[in-house]
Structure formats: C-alpha cells, structure tokens
Design a protein that fits this description.
The chain is of the alpha/beta class. Helices cover 31% and strands 16% of the residues. It has two domains: 103 residues, NAD(P)-binding Rossmann-like Domain (Rossmann fold); 179 residues, 3-Layer(aba) Sandwich (Rossmann fold). The protein is built from eight helices and twelve strands. A seven-stranded parallel β-sheet has the order 8-7-6-9-10-11-12, sandwiched between helices. Helix 1 crosses helix 8 and helix 2 crosses helix 4. The two termini are 29 Å apart. It binds oxalic acid. The site of oxalic acid has 4 residues, from loops.
C-alpha cells in the first residue's frame, strides 16, 4: 500500500522527506503511479478529480496547504480530507501582518517618500496600546495573528460567525456586528477562507464602516473582497491603505488596476508558504494516526467549507 505525493513545487524533495519519515510505506512520486489500487493516501494541493476513480483503496487525502476551497464542489471520493494546520505557517503569517501594519502605523511609507526628497520630518503616531487590531476570521490562523499583536501590546478585536470568549479580546459575531467591528479597528487583518458565506463579504458598505486612517490587510482569500469596491473606497479615502497578499485571480493579471493603485501594496501570496520541514512532519503524523485507526486532524467539514 502506498502514499502518492503530488506537490506543485519540489515534488521530489517532498517524496524523499516522506520516505525518510515513513520508512514502512511505499512513497510514489506523481505522475509515476505503479499500482493505482495500492494508493491509500494522496498528499496533494490540487489534483484532477476525474483521476480519482482509479485509486479504489484510497483512505484519505492530505492537503499540502492551509486553504481547502480546491476540494469543495468537486466530486472527490468520500474519504477524510485532512487540512494542513501548521503553527509555523500561522506564525509566519502573523509576522507578515505585523510588518505591514507597523509599516503604516509608523508611517514608513511616508518616510520612504520623504527620503527620496531628503526630508527629515518626524511624524506623530498612535502607540500600540491605543491602536486596535481587528482579526476578521478568528480560526486557528486568526488566533495566532491576534496573539502576535497582543504580545506587542495592541488591543485585539475579533469577528467570526460563531463568536468566542477568550479573555482580553473584544468579540463581534455575525453580520449584525461586522459594521461595529470594522468601525472599532485601526487595522483589519482578513484571514477568512473562501466559502459561499465569505464570498464578497468585504464590499463598499463594509469598507465605508472602516475608519479613514485604517489599514486593511488580506492574508485570507481574494474572493472575500469585492476588489472594485476596495479600489473605489481607497480613492474615496476610507480606509487609508490596503495590503493584498491574495487576490481573486492569482497570479494577479498584469492589466489589473490593483497593481497601480497608489494605496494598495501587493505581495504574491507569500505571507505563509508551506514549509517542507514542519508540514511533512504534521502530514506524516496524520498518516501514522490513520494507520493506527485513529482520527487525523483537522478534517475538512465539507458542509461548511473549512
Ligand atoms: C494557502 C496556503 O492555503 O498557502 O493559501 O497554504
């Protein structure tokens, strides 16, 4: 029985790592599948669903990335789909969010422009203790991002569908409270996944609820933002700036006006890459669990899309 590995990058390195971590398994390197019926575990980011039927003894699909929308709405076999929840990835996303929020909070954009004009002029800024960070989507990654800011002394507000009761966090729940949440924040970090409920959630009404000086950072999914509404809101002066690590089409096409918007900074979906060193160990541990007849985790709930 075998593990089939299909990584979009460095597939051979992933295969070598799984051979090292799981020496009792045959590990096959896509597309060289010797005996499809022997494949028990498929480790992948995306895979053609129409190819799945030949893996007649498949026991689980293990994702190589945090996002799971590629598994939804497709005719995949009825086996557990195990998400990748790597704390090291969440930590890196938190560092990304901190770096961009502080960039704007501490006026680094202005200082960069000033340097080009040899201007030496100190600007006042709002200290961390008075600068509220809003986490839009308070799941595993959102919590980690919030904790990173809290550790630096920022007050934290969190918006989610179901709420929470962690002490020290101002919780906002559901569509009735999203406007109040956005209005309360100096920076909003969007960590929402792509689901039918989140599609287009950040539209012109929602941006109009934000404060004029606020910063919007998207490290969740591009589909959660109506990009034309965001561009117009920024031109209208509310919020002040946006950082997009994810966009509705990736790579962002060269003709997209988002590239040239004066108040948008773009990075290429780089806030938290999957790292072989940590991710392969988590996936291998889940394969061990499955071998022992235990539940792997976290399993994608196909009914709510995450
Ligand atoms: C993602 C990832 O899901 O990079 O965005 O893992």
């Amino acid at each position: 029985m075998s593990i089939l590995v299909q990584s979009p990058t460095d597939n051979e390195r992933w295969v070598d790592e799984f051979r090292r971590l799981l020496p009792d398994h045959d590990v096959e390197c896509w597309p060289d599948v010797a005996v499809p019926a022997a494949v028990e575990y498929l480790v992948m980011w995306r895979h053609d669903p129409s190819d799945m039927a030949r893996y007649t003894n498949l026991r689980a699909i293990l994702s190589l990335g945090a996002g799971v929308e590629q598994f939804l709405g497709t005719d995949l076999p009825d086996v557990p789909i195990v998400r990748l929840a790597d704390p090291a990835m969440a930590d890196e996303m938190a560092v990304y969010a901190v770096s961009w929020v502080t960039h704007f909070q501490r006026h680094h954009d202005v200082y960069l422009a000033d340097q080009a004009k040899t201007i030496w002029k100190e600007l006042p800024y709002t200290p961390a203790a008075e600068y509220t960070i809003g986490i839009l989507g308070h799941g595993t990654i959102g919590r980690c991002v919030g904790q990173a800011f809290a550790g630096l002394g920022y007050p934290i507000a969190a918006w989610s569908r179901t709420g929470g009761d962690e002490p020290g966090i101002e919780h906002y729940v559901g569509s009735e409270q999203i406007g109040a949440f956005l209005a309360a924040c100096d920076a909003v970090i969007n960590v929402l996944p792509n689901t039918p409920d989140t599609a287009g959630l950040m539209n012109s009404d929602r941006f109009a609820s934000m404060q004029p000086h606020a910063v919007f950072v998207n490290i969740g999914r591009g589909s959660t933002v109506v990009e034309d509404d965001l561009a117009a809101a920024l031109y209208a002066g509310r919020p002040a700036a946006a950082v997009l690590d994810v966009t509705s089409i990736e790579p962002l096409p060269p003709e997209s006006p988002l590239w040239k918007h004066p108040n948008i900074r773009i990075t290429p979906h780089s806030s938290g890459p999957t790292r072989l060193g940590t991710a392969a160990r988590l996936i291998a541990a889940n394969i061990d669990r499955l071998d022992r007849g235990e539940q792997p985790f976290p399993i994608l709930d196909r009914s709510n899309g995450y």
